[in-house]
Structure formats: C-alpha cells, structure tokens
Amino acid sequence: MTGTGPLSTASQLALERRALDLLATPELRAARDRVAALYRADRNYGSHPAGVASLEAAAASITVAAVQHALVADPARPVFLWSACSAHGWHGIDMPNSGYGIDNPDNVHRRSAVDGESTYVVRGRVPEVPAAQFSFICYGAPEADGKVTREGAAIASVVLSSQLVPDADGRFELTVGPTPVDDRPHLRTAPTSTWMLVRDALTDWESQDPLWLEIERIAGPDAAPEPTDADLVELAVANVERLSRYWLDYDNELIHDVRPLNAIKQPTPRPFGASVVGRFDVAADEGLLVTLDPCGADYLGFEVTDPWGVTRPSVEATGGLNNRQAKANADGTLTYLVAATDPGVHNWLDTGGLTAGMVAARWQGGQVAEDAEPVREVRVVPLRDVASFFSDGHRITPEGRAEQLQQRAAAFARRLR
Questions:
Q1: Measured CA distances, 235 to 69, 154, 167, 227, 250 (Å)
Q2: Over the stretch 104-123, which tens digit does the pLDDT of each residue have?
Q3: Half-sphere exposure (CA, 13 Å, Cβ side) for 393?
Q4: What is residue 45's predicted lDDT score, i.e. its pLDDT?
Q5: Is the C or the N end of the chain the one with fewer CB within 10 Å?
Q6: pLDDT of amino acid 1
Q7: pLDDT of residue 271
Q8: Quick one: which of 350, 361, 308 has its CA closest to 65?
Q9: Using N-to-C axis directions, what is the helix angle for 10-23 and 229-251, rounded to 10°?
Q10: Residue closest to 91 by CA, chosen among 212, 2, 17
Q11: What interhelical angle do 49-71 and 229-251 show, nearest 10?
C-alpha cells in the first residue's frame, strides 16, 4: 500500500521496511552501541549533563541515517529516499528519527546515489503549492570521507528552483552527469561523485508540498551485481563508523572548540543561501534570547540541537521555528527564546530539557547581501524576566501552546498522506 503524497512512494516504503530489518541485526545494534561509547568518550560533552542525557538517542538516530545511506548507495540502480527526518508512523511502518549533522525539520531531504561516469534523468513535478525553495545538489565526494568541511563533502554543482522552468502541468526534467545531454537543465557530477541530494525548504507546513520525483539512469558502465543483505549490513556498519566519527569531529572542530558560548556570528553565504551555527550553555533558570532579521529571504529557519548535532523534537515540540511559524516583531525581525522549560512565549525553541547544545539559522531563497548583518541580538536572560522582552502578542497560555503543537503535528502529517 502506498499513499497519495509525493513522499509515500512504493520505493520509499519498501526501503524503510528494509531499513528496519537491517537495524534489527546484531551488527547494527553493536555499531549503534559503539557510537554511544564514542560519544561518552568525547572531550567536550561526553560527561556534560546535556551530552549524557541525549547521546543514546543521538547514536540511534545517526545509525538509522547510516542504514538509509547504504540502501541508496548503488549508482546503477538509483532511487530517491527521504531521510534525515523526524520519526514517523505510516502504512504500518514506525520509522525512527534519522536526523544528524544539524538536520533541519523544515527541509525534506531526498538522497540518491550517482557516480561520475553515468548519466541520469530526474523527472519532477512541482506541486500546486511548492516549497519556498527547492534545490538539487551534487556532491563531488562521498559524505564524511575526508577532511571536515561545512557541507560534509565538497559540492560539485547546484541547480536551484529559480533555474527551472516547469511546463504548464508543473513538470520538468533535469539531467545529471559529467556533461550536459541537451538543452535541459543539468547537474554536473565530478569523477569522484557518489551521491546527490534534493532539498525542499517548507516554510508553510500546512500548505506547501515537496516535489514529486523519480530518477532513471540512462547511460553508464555495466552494473555490478545487486548487493546482498550481507553486503548492505557491511556497508551500513561502515557508514555508521564513518558518519559518527566525522560529524563528531565536525561539531568539535568547527563549533565546540572554536565558537564562543552563547553567541552567534553573522552568517556566511552558501550555494543555496546563508547559514550560521552557534552554541549555548545556560543555567536551568536562563534562556538564550536571539533576534534575527529575514533580510528578504523567502525562508528563515532557526533550530536547536543537542550537543551531537541532532535537532530537538520539532513535530511534537518546538525544536525549530521558521519565519512562517514564528511571530514577527513590528519591524519584521524575529525574536526567539532558547530554553529548557516553557517560558510562556510563542517563539520558544524547546531544548527538551537540555541546557546546552547548538543553534542553527538558515536563510534560503532570495538574496541576503554579503554585507548584511541579520543576527541582530544574542544574549543570556533570566527566565523570570521574559515578560520584559516580549510584547503581549507574543505571550502564550498553556492552552495556546497545546493548540500550537496540535497544529504542528497535523501539518507534519500532510507529508505522510
């Protein structure tokens, strides 16, 4: 059985069922336990209360992602798999969380294998209400396979939604490979490419939908034999080891060891927008007050993660809020409060009880000027003084919070239809 939405395809559901089978093997359970041990030995957060409280769930989440990667690693048999996403139940499947690497709950990530020799065609259809931005990203090397970089791997090429011209029915085609095939938009691979990513940035969960997608390999070398279950287990275990070590080094080398506490730098441009990551550590009776300027971007997302880079629950809680979900100030800026307990304001980034971790802000769509300074304010404040930082329109009652969360859960359920 499949659903009626762009994500609940027969291939997606079959791959999720197979992922659950792999996760149940002794080899993957042992790999997950090794990740937890790796985190416990970490110099920064292995013994920190926030790290200890979240490391088992973080180890499980990156293990799920590693298994998913293994299932779509064959470039001769490409298929898109929705991954790096919140836990969800649909069609008799209870899929656990697969977030890692400072994942974004507003983004629908679909991954497929490619190689540097073959040529592929991606066929898509833009929904009636599309994402604020969608992008196609081809990476020039395997993820987490080498020196730590901001993107997890070097980017070979990017095609943005603004570069595509769908037909009257919303359909389009994109070729992927070392050289263009014809006049269709083209995503260039590198000789060492192994994967591509499609990212839909959803600002309005209640109306926007991700693309309808399929991929076909139309030229390339002879296919190797299809991997066996044993091959997939071996690859998944290797993925767990590689991803966990890489992203722990990423968090330490690029964030925990070098970024000041309770501060956020101005964002730096990326191929599809701008972004910045900071870290926080506050007392239980404090919060981090952050004001951001959208600067004309179609999408501004702000998320809080545990110390291991897994975004806090964002469906049944407010671990992330984008510019459509947050209440704006009179001047168009957005002020958030990152806190472990509910401060009674609409724009609460819920850490799920953690007093330390990371925050990430992303601007996508439109153009943020290089000299812009969209991070307006970042400071630690006592929770008892929250009323002085927010107007009456930003306050929220317990009943209002329950309604906010019910709306989020219902909106996320649209992705599962």
A1: 9, 21, 40, 10, 22
A2: 999 999 999 999 999 999 99
A3: 7
A4: 98
A5: N
A6: 60
A7: 66
A8: 308
A9: 80
A10: 2
A11: 140
- CA-closest candidate to residue 164, choices 152, 155, 156, 172: 172
Encoded tokens for 36: 């937890």
Task: Look at residue 301 and give its three-state secondary structure.
Answer: strand
- The predicted structure's pLDDT at residue 186: 98
Beta carbons of 78 and 189 less than 8 angstroms apart:
no
Phi and psi of 384, rounded to 5°?
-65, -20
The pLDDT value given to residue 269: 77
User: What residues contact 249, with CB distance under 8 A and at least 6 apart?
Assistant: 148
Looking at residue 56, its amino acid is E
191, with CB counted inside 10 A (0-12, 13-18, 19+), is exposed
- Residue 318, C-beta contacts closer than 8 angstroms, at least 6 positions apart: 348, 349, 350, 404, 405, 408
CB neighbours of 218 closer than 8 A, spacing ≥ 6? 119, 120, 121
Only one residue has tokens 């085609």, namely: 173
Q: Which residues of the chain have pLDDT under 50?
A: none
DSSP code, position 223: P
